[in-house]
Amino acid sequence: MKVNPKVVALIQARIGSTRLPGKVLRPILGRPMIEHQIERAKLAKLVDQLVLATSDRPQDIALVDTASRLGVGSFAGDENDVLDRLYRAAQQYSADIVVRLTADCPLLDPQIIDRCVRHFLDHRDQVDYVSTGPTFADGLDVEVLSFATLERAWKEAQKAYEREHVTVYVWQSGRFRVERLEHDPDLSYMRWTVDEERDFQFVSKVYEALFPHLGYKFDVQEILRLLAKKPELVAINQGITKNEGFLKSIRLERGPLIKMRQGSILRSDEYWKRAKGLIPAGTQTLSKGPTQYVDGVAPKYLVRGHGSHIWDVDGNEYIDYPMALGAVLLGYNYPAVNEAIARQLQDGITFSLMHPLEVEVSELLHELIPCAEMVRFGKNGSDATTGAIRVARAYTGREKIAHCGYHGWHDWYIGSTTRNKGVPRSYIDHQFGFSFNDLETLKSVFDKNPREIAAVIMEPYGSTLPHEGFLEGVKDLTHNNGAVLIFDEVATGFRFHLCGIHQRFGVDPDLACFGKAMANGMPISALVGRAEIMQVLDDVFYSFTFGGECLSLAAAKATLTELQNRNVIPYLWENGTRLQEGFNRLASDYAMQKYVECVGLPPRTYPVFQNIGDTPALVVKSLFQQEVIKRGVLAISAGHCMCFSHTVDDIEYTLGVYQEAFDILAKAAREGTIAKQVEGRPVQPVFRPVN
C-alpha cells in the first residue's frame, strides 16, 4: 500500500427503501436527511474524498444532483448488487482505502470515522478490515477496508445476501483479518439508525435539540447528555428489530434449506432405559451423556458418521459440531485414515513384541513438536497427563502439583473438583489450583509451598487468550522454583497449530501432553518432552498392554501426515471464523449479545449463555439448543469443534438454524416464557455438588 494512501468514504444510499420509502430525502430542519449525513461526514479529518454511491435507477438521479450541489463525488451503479456498486465507485475514484457508510446513519459522529480510519492506518499490515463493534449504538456504523480487500470480496462473494450487504463476505468468510473496535460505555442498547418512522422521529428530535446550538459538530457525548436529560426520547424507537433488512435477506437465502427433524427418538430412549440399570451414570463419558442435552428432545445414541454428519439410532441426520468431543479432526469415515486402519487390520491389531509404528509415529511427533525430544504413548488424555505428573515428581523428588484447567479423571487432579468422592484426602492436599492470566495466584502457591511443587500443569489455552507475558511468566516462576512446566494440549493439540498451540504463543514447556485429535478418533495420546526429564521413564513405571496398539498408531500416522500435506489447520480457522462471526452477528442483530456469545479461537469455539432475568443460563442454553437439534444440528454443548470435512454449505445451514433459534429465544425472552418452552429436562452441569 502507498505511503500516503487515498482514503475514500462511500455513502451507500438510494431512495427506494422498503420499510421507509424516500427516507434519505425526508426533511429534518428543512434539509433532506442525506444532506445532514453528508455535512457531518465532511468533518472527518482523515477522509480525502467523499462519494455518494447510489443506484442507476431514474428515481435516484436526485441523489446525484444532491451530491453535486454539496461538492462531493457521486457514482450510480447496480441497485441490488451493492458490492459491485461500491467496488466500481471505489475504483473510479482511485481509492486505496475504502470507508463504507450507509445513508441511514444521520447521527454518525465524524470522530468515529477518524478513529476507525486511524486504527486501520496504524495496523494496515495486520488487518484487512476494521469496523465499529456491537458496543456502539446502532447507527454509528463505520467500516474501513483496503481496496484490495474490497476487490477480492467482489471477485469471490457468490451469495445474494453477500452481494447486497457488501462486507458480509469479508467479515464472515474467515479469509480476511478482521478487527472490531469497542465503545466505552456500551451503547449496544441504543438505536440511532433510521429504518422506520419511529427512528426518523427520534433522529429529528435529536437534531431539533442540538443543531441550533452546535451545528454539525455535536458528537456522541452531546447526544448522550441530551438523552440523559430527556429519557423519553429513547422510548420513541425502542423495540424495533436491529438490522431487519439484513436478517430478512439471509433468511430468504438460508431459510428454504432448513428442515425440521421428522423422525422420533424412541429407539434412543429405549436404549437409555436398558442402560440406566446396567451402566453407572448411564454413560461411559459424562460429556456425551443426556445431562448435556435437552432430555426428551436430543438423541442419546449415534450409530454412524460420515464427513461432518452423523446419524442417530432412529435414523435422524445431523451436522455434528462436538465431533466426538474434538477427537475427530478430519471428519468421520475419512478415507486416508480408514485406509491406514484397514491395511494395519490385515496385519494385526496388537502383538507380543513392539511394532515399527511406535518408532515411526514417535519420529513424526519429534519432527513436528520442538520440545518432543522423547515420546511415550497412552490411550487417553488422562494417561498422558498422569504420566507427566509422575515423571515430574520423579524428576524433582517432590510431590505437590499446581494446576490450571481440566486434566482428566485421575486422583491427582479430579480431587480438586466437586466430583471428588473416592479420592484420598492426601491426593487433594497435594494439589493447588491457580487462575489463568493471574500470575499472582501461581506465585502464592509457590510462596505457601516453598521448594515443594513438583510441576505446574496447565492448558495454555482454553477459551481465553493468555495475556501478553502470562505464559512466559508462568515458565519463569516454574523454573525459578525448581519445578517442571507441563502444557496439557490434549484438547488443543493439532487443532490450532501443527506443532501445538503453545507454538502459536512462542513458549515451550518441559513436557507436553497430546491426545484427542491426533488420530482422528482412534484412542491414542502422547507424552512428549525434553530428554533430560523424559529419561526418568527408564525407571518410572508407565506401561500399558495397549500402549503400542497398532490400529491407533496407524491412524495417528495417517492423520499427522494429512495435517502436514494438506491445508487442514488454515481451513479450520477459516470455516470456524465464518461460523463464529455469523453467530455473533445474529446475537447482536437480535439484541441478545449480552446474554449469548460465541467465544474462543475459530477452530474451537463455545457458545456461552448468561442468565436472562430470573431464567438461569442453563435453561436459556437449553431452549436454544433444543431448537437447533430439532432442525438437524447437534451443537451448543461441547462447543464447535471444526473438522476438515465441515463445508461452507454446512456453515450456511447451521447459521440459518441459529437464526431461527435466536428468533425463538429473543421472543421468549421478551415474553418471559423461556423455561416454559423447553420441552424436556434442561441441560445439567457436568461438575455439580456431590453430597
Adjacency order of strands in the biggest sheet: 5-4-1-6-8-7-9
Total beta-strand segments: 23
Query: Pairing-aware structural class of the strands and helices?
Result: alpha/beta
Count of helix runs: 26
| Beta-strand fraction estimate | 5-15%
What profile does the largest beta sheet have? Answer: 7 strands, mixed
Low-confidence stretches: none
Give helix % range: 25-40%
* Gyration radius, in Å: 28 Å
Mean pLDDT: 95
- Overall geometry: elongated
Distance between the termini: 64 Å
What keywords describe this structure?
691 residues, alpha/beta, seven-stranded mixed sheet, 26 helices
Describe this structure in words.
The protein has 691 residues and is α/β, with parallel strands linked by helices. The chain contains 26 helices and 23 strands. The strands form five sheets. A seven-stranded mixed sheet has the order 5-4-1-6-8-7-9, with helices on both faces. Helix 3 packs antiparallel against helix 5, helix 18 (439-448) runs parallel beside helix 19 and helix 23 runs parallel beside helix 25 (648-671). The radius of gyration is 28 Å and the shape is elongated.
